[in-house]
């Protein structure tokens, strides 16, 4: 029995992203394709998103010219691939405030948003620091914070302080403080609805970019696998490893249940298809009665 | 070292933070400087203005985010963690930006650019004054303050110039290995 369907929806990608960005210490190891994705969760009478991507009109050309970001498509086009419109989305969980996760809130006019309070408060702190410390607000668009003001004024924003059980029935939120960002969050779906679930999925945001972050090679230290944190951390790699352990614990240490949305090789693990727009839909699980979209 | 007059890409690369061994620092794009005539559009006066304007632009970009974040916390019930000198810090930074704008020497063809910066600065100042009046916990003035900040944001977005490091999102530091795309071209 499964309450929710989960799809990872690609909305853009970078063909050649340096591997050291996704895997700590992987210098001079070339490039990997980096899909930009968000997650749709549907079931229990709800349509929810994990992150909302970015709006191409604001800086799409710059991203394309300078960083090689390609093939952006709107949520309307992307969600149509699973038969959903942005207007149907009632809940959005924002894992962190980087532009490619929090940059398109206006596309979801009927949604209520959740974000960690620390993600806002520590970015406010960082933005008040001297110029020489500007690295600490990397990839944050002040415009997204401004749009967050609009959400707050419309009473469509809940700021979470740490963990929140049953944000939706069977869906929990967890904080990974001072890790990839100051207040990163992951989303846990207990898909059988039980407190001690045996059907748990973790939607990791950018706490995990690729499979190796969870199952890196441990040959150098004579173990099968070990956690290798992502390359970019405003907080610390230590906190990323600690968060990975918590996520793995929630899934009973079944690594395939920790979903990295920037992982191109989801296609090797889950059913998927490429849409007419050249973007991938990965089907993580289906709720009872839901038809496959791939 | 590259010369910004003959290698416009130098400005682009110079405004990012690089590792000591980054290829971008040594790299020149296109023909060598000796083969390229000095660009009439990128003289020293323009370069000096760009360096000053970028400081002001970046400062205002972050002030907008700072004040918007304070507004969210005020509106959505954040804790008191931010009360410590947040507004006085913001006022000091606003004053510092004003000094930069006052002293920047502007080539005539960039007057409109500086006027836009000054207008954005004025709007942020208005928002700051409103914040001063209502305090961090105040209610009611939020829509007016966010309107000022949105206005300032739109102005800055409208005069964004990625080649000069003036963009609303700082992508340049988003990776630990820089210039990856530039190196491929």
Task: Give an account of the 3D structure.
Chain A: GO terms for molecular function: hydrolase activity; metal ion binding. Chain A: Keywords: Hydrolase, Metal-binding, Zinc. Chain A: Residues 34-262 form the Metallo-beta-lactamase domain. The complex is a heterodimer of chains A (294) and B (185). By secondary structure, chain A is an alpha+beta fold. In chain A, 21% of the residues lie in helices and 29% in strands. Chain A is built from seven helices and 16 strands. In chain A, strands 1, 2, 3, 4, 5, 6, 7, 15 and 16 form a nine-stranded mixed beta sheet that branches. In chain A, strands 8-9-10-11-14 form a five-stranded mixed beta sheet. In chain A, strands 12-13 form a two-stranded antiparallel sheet. In chain A, strand 9 (171-177) and strand 10 form a beta hairpin. Chain B has a domain at 52-164: Four Helix Bundle (Hemerythrin (Met), subunit A) (Up-down Bundle), CATH 1.20.120. Chain B has helices at 9-14, 23-26, 44-76, 86-103, 111-134, 142-158, 180-184. Chain B is elongated. The chains are: A alpha+beta (294), B mainly alpha (185). Chains A and B meet through strand 1, helix 2, helix 5, helix 6 and strand 7 of A and helix 3, helix 4, helix 6 and helix 7 of B.
